[in-house]
Amino acid sequence: MLKFCSIFSKSKSKNLFLLRSRTKSTSSSQSSPAAYTFSRRIFPYSKHSSLLAPASISRVPPSRSFATDSEARDSIEYDVVVVGAGPAGLSAAIRLKQLCHQKGADLSVCVVEKGAEVGAHIISGNVFEPRALDELLPQWKQEEAPINTPVSSDKFWFLTKNRAISLPSPFHNKGNYVISLSQLVRWLGAKAEELGVEIYPGFAASEILYDTNNKVIGIGTNDMGIAKDGSKKENFQRGVEVKGRITLLAEGCRGSLSEKIMGRYNLREKGGAEHQTYALGIKEVWEIDERKHQPGAVLHTLGWPLDHKTYGGSFLYHMKDNQISIGFVVALNYQNPFMNPYEEFQKFKHHPAIRPYLEGGTVIQYGARTLNEGGFQSIPYPVFPGGAIIGCSAGFLNVPKIKGTHTAMKSGMLAAEATFGVLNEGLDMDMYWKALRNSWIWDELYKARNYRPAFENGLIPGLALSGLEHYLLRGKHPFTLKHGKADHEATNAAQLHSPIQYPKADGILSFDVPTSLHRSNTNHEHDQPPHLRLRDPKIPETVNLPVYAAPESRYCPARVYEYVADEHNQLKLQINAQNCLHCKACDIKDPKQNIEWTVPEGGGGPGYSVM
């Protein structure tokens, strides 16, 4: 599988996005602006892919000069800037370049990605529905896309502590494929580069740039080489401004810039949307005994070990090469502050119907990520002055299907078509909103709109209502159910619950957090400002600990947050930011919304390869 080179060297903490050749004036009386030369990086994709598109593809030439001083940021201009090299962002970039080629236009497109490689931060189940890919790249089978394990069986179980009760499967996965989404994204990255898209991994977009009219004109990256205390290290490099006539935000679920944009322009209110609801997905990839492997077999469960008030379930998908994806999803509106989603997952693997699949196997990789579950009711108005929000940043996951890749890709394609119309035909970006409402995304999410809120009153009422909706009404219910409390508001005070005693990890089927974290390939530069920020540093000790029994120490699947005794034997919150998986659970679930997730230095975070 292809590897994208990082623009970020962890050993030296240098931003290599600009390969600079500085010439200084010899004049002693007046310094001329420093000149920088931008050099295109070449990626070794595969023997079938072209390495570089001709320079004439891009309106912005491959060599650029900048005027700068010791503090000013370099500035680079493109026609379109896409933030996030996931399914939505890459689909948007590909579609833009396709339109350029079809209509003889000339637009420069840049994709920036905070992961060290394209695909490094991508994690999903994933049973892939190829509908959007069929539209985007119809020849994907002939072009060796990493999609080659068709679904062969589709089972759905209700688990009690010791039994697995088979239920009719509502997922309809015939024609779908079991895949690694991180691998598919790498392939999409290669296709985008072949078309002339410039992709820069290791590039953390930390702020939105605005003009004097409050219009978005691009993004800025964070400075590199800043120490924890805020001082500049020897390898300090100023961030870069990446400006675009249109900026598309494709950061994934709970994107930090997307959330700021939605707040600044009141996009939820403008779209008549409810608050977003979320779940936390935790996943492992195992290599299992060949005799137990059933390529394409798909299994979903609900029930044990979760209580009947908590929405969630599991998945187990047989991939290729004797590998399986096994994961556990817990809705973040759970009430009990003593619940630990990571430990629920470890406990689940010991169920007598699940354990036989794993015995004798080996864990290859571990990861976690939040996902949107708000569906139709929570879609914000996705257009803002100067750009749009696409993919899971907006929230197009189909909850009853447990799928969002195909809708994310389609949203990126629709945004690309609207962008092309704006830049070449003088149209309005609101075309994207209109296209969404007329697309199969809208139809699909509308029909599925009542499934998730049906479970607000518990498992049994949820099964009854969702079954009625799925099998009889088929999305034609005259009413649209509303979501309950926001996830952070759903957490009860600790005094209303009893602590949960979880079994100790056995090191065979279940594992402690440090062991799992090692398998995620997570790495951050240790000496940098914390990217997990407390709006009020007193709240952990004055509210979270006494009222909610320190829930951040349990909802985080990477042990980022822990309470340790100080010299006076008083418990204080310690943030181990270097452990962060970028799952965003803390940004969502903290009871007082006191934790703000921001991007760390580019290239930091997990290093997924088969997730």
UniProtKB/TrEMBL annotation:
Q: Which GO terms describe its molecular function?
A: 4 iron, 4 sulfur cluster binding; electron-transferring-flavoprotein dehydrogenase activity; metal ion binding
- Which UniProt keywords are present, listed alphabetically? Electron transport, FAD, Flavoprotein, Iron, Iron-sulfur, Membrane, Metal-binding, Mitochondrion, Mitochondrion inner membrane, Oxidoreductase, Transit peptide, Transport, Ubiquinone
Q: How is the cofactor bound?
A: Binds 1 [4Fe-4S] cluster.
Q: List, alphabetically, the Gene3D superfamilies matched.
A: 3.30.70.20, 3.30.9.90, FAD/NAD(P)-binding domain
Q: What is its EC number?
A: 1.5.5.1
Q: Where is the composition biased (Basic and acidic residues)?
A: 522-536
Q: Which domain of life is it from?
A: Eukaryota
Q: Which InterPro entries match?
A: ETF-QO, ETF-QO/FixC_UQ-bd, ETF-QO/FixX_C, FAD/NAD-bd_sf
Region labeled Disordered — which residues? 516-536
- Which compartment or compartments is the protein found in? Mitochondrion inner membrane
**Start and end residues of each ETF-QO/FixX C-terminal domain:** 507-609
Family matches, as SUPFAM superfamilies: 4Fe-4S ferredoxins, FAD-linked reductases, C-terminal domain, FAD/NAD(P)-binding domain
Q: Main subcellular localization, coarse class? A: mitochondrion
**Reactions this protein catalyses:** a ubiquinone + reduced [electron-transfer flavoprotein] = a ubiquinol + oxidized [electron-transfer flavoprotein] + H(+)
Q: Which GO terms describe its cellular component?
A: mitochondrial inner membrane
Domain named ETF-QO/FixC ubiquinone-binding is located at 278-371
Q: Which cofactor does it need?
A: [4Fe-4S] cluster; FAD
Q: Which PANTHER family match?
A: ELECTRON TRANSFER FLAVOPROTEIN-UBIQUINONE OXIDOREDUCTASE, ELECTRON TRANSFER FLAVOPROTEIN-UBIQUINONE OXIDOREDUCTASE, MITOCHONDRIAL
This chain's function reads: Accepts electrons from ETF and reduces ubiquinone.
Q: Which family does it belong to?
A: Belongs to the ETF-QO/FixC family.
In Swiss-Prot or TrEMBL terms, this protein is called Electron transfer flavoprotein-ubiquinone oxidoreductase
| Organism expressing this protein natively | Arachis hypogaea
